[in-house]
Amino acid sequence: MAEPSSLSNTTHHPTLQVDYTWRKWKAYISDRSDPSKPLYIVHYKFWSKECIIVKSATDDTTVGTGTLHVFSINPTYSLHGRKGTIKALKRWVTSYTHLSYAYASSPDGPPVTMTWTSTSNFKTWDFVCLDEQQMPVAKFSANLWALKKIGNIEFLGDKATSETVRDEIVVTGLTLMYCMVLRTSSILSFFGAIFARTGPIKGDETAHLQQAAAEEPVSGMGREPQQVTASTDGQVIS
User: Fold this and answer.
1) What is the rounded distance in angstroms from the CA atom of residue 189 to the CA atom of residue 194?
2) pTM beyond 0.85, yes or no
């Protein structure tokens, strides 16, 4: 049975838009075809352990959280209570991986490895999520200079209308984006990249990465989303 979804599919691909409100220090994520009805509310608490908190706009339950770290370039997250790590594949290029249960072949099956890469130009920084066959399944286009309209999240492929997929991409995509914001502005993240152990993430490695990251202080990025600077090939500029 197909999974229900509140995403509209009137356009070629289901798309969410992310709008930031300075008055409330929050972001509202809604279907681009109906921005008046938010699906998620994002709370920013960069001074606390869980820097990004994504809640359902319907019942205020926590969908997931994202945590950034002072030294480690591997952000961590939780999704419906399950913890995970977004691990860097390379030190100086936006190339990350995470284990996905939403894209697994069956609900009880083992997670599959998803890869995040990026491209950028003068206006946008695109974070593209690829499946195990390196086919794009989602794209988070962040507006580099926007003060309110942070960006859009576009879904592709057979699971483009899945709520489970939507939750995972929203949480991991936002966490990775703000991780890269931190990396472009922090000298400590620069040294963290030098000493980082990069490479594909493994199932038995997640707990170790979570424990190591938990021993670090929080990022202290500030209370608001920051503007970012990136080169045209997705490299990090410190």
Assistant:
1) 9
2) no
